[in-house]
Design goal:
This protein has 21 helices and four strands. The protein is an all-alpha fold. The chain has a domain of 216 residues. The strands form two sheets. It has a two-stranded antiparallel ribbon. Helix 1 crosses helix 4, helix 5 runs antiparallel to helix 12 and helix 12 runs antiparallel to helix 15. The radius of gyration is 22 Å and the shape is globular.
Length: 508
Amino acid sequence: MIDLIGALTPAGIAQHAVALLVVVPLIMAPIAALMPNGRAAWGVTLAAAIVTLWMVGVVFGQVHAADLVSYAMGGWDAPLGIEYRVDRLTLPVLGLVGVLGLLCVIYGLPSVAQEVARDKQALFYSAFLVCFSGLLGVVVTGDAFNVFVFVEISSLSTYAIIAMGAAQDRRALTAAYNYLILGTIGATFFVIGVGFLYMATGTLNMADMANILRENGHDRVTQAAFAFIVVGLGLKSAMFPLHVWLPNSYAFAPNFVTAFLASTATKVAFYALIRFVFGVFHPDAGFVMVSLTWVIAVVGVIGMLVASFQAIFQVDARRLLAYSSVAQVGYMMLGMGVGTSAGLSAGLLHLVNHGMMKGALFMALGAFALRFGLRRISDLNGMGKLMPASSVALTISGLSLVGVPLTVGFTSKWYLVSAVLDRGWWWAVAAIMLSSLLALVYVARLLSAVWLQPAPTHHGEALAPRRAPWAMLVPMYLLAIANIWFFLQSSPLVSLTQRAAAAVLGGG
């Protein structure tokens, strides 16, 4: 498929594919804003997402052929100019953002039409495209300051699209404001860290930074830079205990926004953290390895357990899944904290798999909300009878979240357990098992309400079954089926993430 995409793409376009990933949605954003109504703006957004995913396919082919794609912006070669740099570490996250972006746009047509005020829908899609472009920019840029710029581009538009959920729930405004304050703090920490790195190396190109640090070693300036960058990107990726902005943002944003952010935004921030910790600093530095072992891994395990425990007691279904997301970031932190190629690849595999799980879960909850206006777990009673198709998708992705065999959740947890056992971390294995049991408890709360509780009635009359629109069902089921398919055919994703880890750490 990738070879076919490359063959069908004109050479003049293919050579600029890395730049077009960012440019296409950014250019289409003002066009979407000028559309006369939401449906027309959705059409522009859909076209942009399709073209962007096509460019992702082109870049995949280029990296598979050459291992590295370097694109000099404006003809200024790195390290003097800004470089877009795509290697095998980039591919899993790039593919995730491209695919989930398109699926969420398809899903968003009926969702946005109901949840966002009619006169703001064109602006909503415009802001989404800016967010989409910013996330892709974070993934492909090779310039440290450019990472900050793209993080802020995606964040500013995210605040806006979360706030547009106020048409359904005024608390979306407070959630967006809290995210703005904390997001600004995180961005400030990050840019201070980049400033320290520039002070130590005299360059903003990340590959050049890595080479200079490898030659000159690390001092207190680079150690301070490491600390600031970990805190800044940790807040953006909702690492425990820097996650306090996330539950309300997921709970009160429009369903389309929640599905997209849960499956992509925190993943991109976590990728950026991996890129700096492993690609710029590298675990060969003693303080980096100590930080991975005694800070990242330990805090990740605490987050797995505490956030899973918090999820059990939530009454709002989307807040439950939000706390679950914090716990799942803990799994990724643990894989990263192992500090080996096996651990990093397991963390990346869980990153991709979690994007598929959470995308399908939030899409199913959005379908329930669209047809019945449901938010609380108790409101889901009997949905298995009233909306069986959406309920099946919720069940598959929920079981994958627990890590039940025959789902991708089991696959990534298996590789994570194998990686921590290689380090002799039995305590981490116990934490993974306990966190999975806690996940079983809160997922069981959802599924028991959906399948075991009686359906609600209206004035004594049974409610009529309702089906979600096809625009919601198709992407929802593609993700739900992917949760099973990539267990049965796990080698493509496993190989992709193993090569990604080897790109920065080698095979050890």
